[in-house]
Write a structure and sequence with these properties.
Helix content: 25-40%
Number of strands: 13
Number of helices: 12
Bound molecules: adenosine-5'-triphosphate, magnesium ion
Largest sheet: 6 strands, mixed
Shape: elongated
CATH class of the largest domain: Alpha Beta
Radius of gyration: 24 Å
Distance between the termini: 46 Å
CATH topology of the largest domain: Rossmann fold
CATH architecture of the largest domain: 3-Layer(aba) Sandwich
Oligomer: single chain
Length: 317
């Protein structure tokens, strides 16, 4: 029963949230009346082009910015009215780090541990430094860290109070592919172990796809669409086909033109073209190419990606 109810509980609820800034007499609407809910235990991605309003949204949800209007509830409570509770049960890690440059990683984490009232904080700090492979440099000042080390130090800060709701704003920026992969595993592992709810922003589509259960696309302060990545990808009704032949590339090009496909580019003996995902058109064209006796040296078919969706939405203006 509890499990069943749990599925319908929302740890983050946002209704008609608005934030404007004033600059030289001009009004900038950074967040323009957005509404969304994140279920308990869900990893929810907030995507969108630069300046879409993602960080402004997170800053309002974490109490760093005052909202103009709208309602926000974290774990069922409005942060303004229940700040101690919301602060102690949530946390944020962002590439735009607020760790003190002149303190070491360990000293920074001690400050935050006190702020959040973490019990056994030395043990917790050691566990986090171990988890993010920072133990050997725990006493190094933030200013001397590489960008990837700094990013991991910020993630330690984000998990210091074992939050139930975690906000991650571009928290994997600057990580090398190996550490980025490990970091995603840590985030996923933490989420599963603690049934934590995560609001996540990133410009790396593959990690959004790997981590997020649902995605909200933001553009110009508004939410354009909320769905799973597989449903969003269905909005793009094109396969991209990369094909290379041992000879007769001109004949292949002429044949493809008669089939009415969109040729994107051609190079040496290869052609890249787009074909609709509808009515098995791609399979029909490829089987015709075989039947016509073209000698293929390469064939690669790529379905729609989250990048395609991102570009489509970003250019929709
Ligand atoms: N303090 C401020 N004063 C004026 N304008 C601001 C301020 N903070 C943000 N903005 C503007 O609000 C808009 C949204 O900014 P925001 O940082 O939320 O975007 P974002 O989606 O996080 O972008 P990015 O992907 O680049 O991080 C931008 O046009 C930005 O210039
Ligand atoms: Mg941002």
């Amino acid at each position: 029963m509890y499990f069943w109810l749990n599925r319908f509980m929302h740890d983050i609820e946002v209704q008609n949230l608005v934030k404007t800034f004033r600059e030289k007499g001009k009004v900038i609407t950074a967040v323009d009346g957005i509404s969304f809910s994140v279920r308990k235990g869900e990893i929810f991605g907030l995507l969108g082009p630069n300046g879409a309003g993602k960080s402004t949204t997170i800053n309002m949800l974490t109490g760093l910015l005052e909202k103009d209007s709208g309602t926000v509830k974290i774990l069922g409570f409005e942060p303004e009215k229940n700040w101690e509770f919301v602060k102690n049960s949530s946390n944020v890690a962002t590439a735009y780090s607020w760790l003190s440059d002149v303190l070491s990683i360990r000293q920074n984490l001690r400050v935050y541990a006190r702020l959040y009232g973490v019990k056994n904080h030395e043990q917790k700090i050691n566990e986090l430094l171990e988890l993010f492979e920072l133990k050997d440099i725990g006493d190094r000042k933030i200013i001397r860290l590489s960008s990837g080390e700094n990013t991991r130090a910020v993630l330690c800060k984000g998990l210091i109070n074992s939050p139930k709701v975690l906000f991650l704003d571009e928290c994997t920026v600057g990580l090398d592919p190996d550490i980025a992969d490990k970091t995603r595993s840590i985030i996923k592992g933490y989420q599963q172990k603690n049934d934590c709810t995560i609001l996540f922003t990133s410009h790396y589509m593959y990690e959004v796809e790997e981590l997020c259960d649902r995605i909200a696309f933001m553009s110009d302060g508004k939410i354009i669409s909320i769905d799973t990545s597989s449903n969003l990808k269905k909005l793009i009704k094109k396969h991209t086909v990369e094909i290379a032949v041992k000879k007769d590339v001109k004949l292949l090009k002429e044949f493809l033109k008669t089939e009415g496909v969109d040729i994107i580019f051609e190079k040496d003996n290869g052609i890249v073209f787009e074909v609709t995902t509808e009515k098995d058109k791609m399979y029909k064209i490829i089987s015709k190419i075989f039947h016509k006796g073209f000698m293929l040296s390469n064939l690669h078919v790529k379905g729609p990606t989250l990048d395609d969706i991102f570009i489509k939405i970003a250019r929709r203006k």
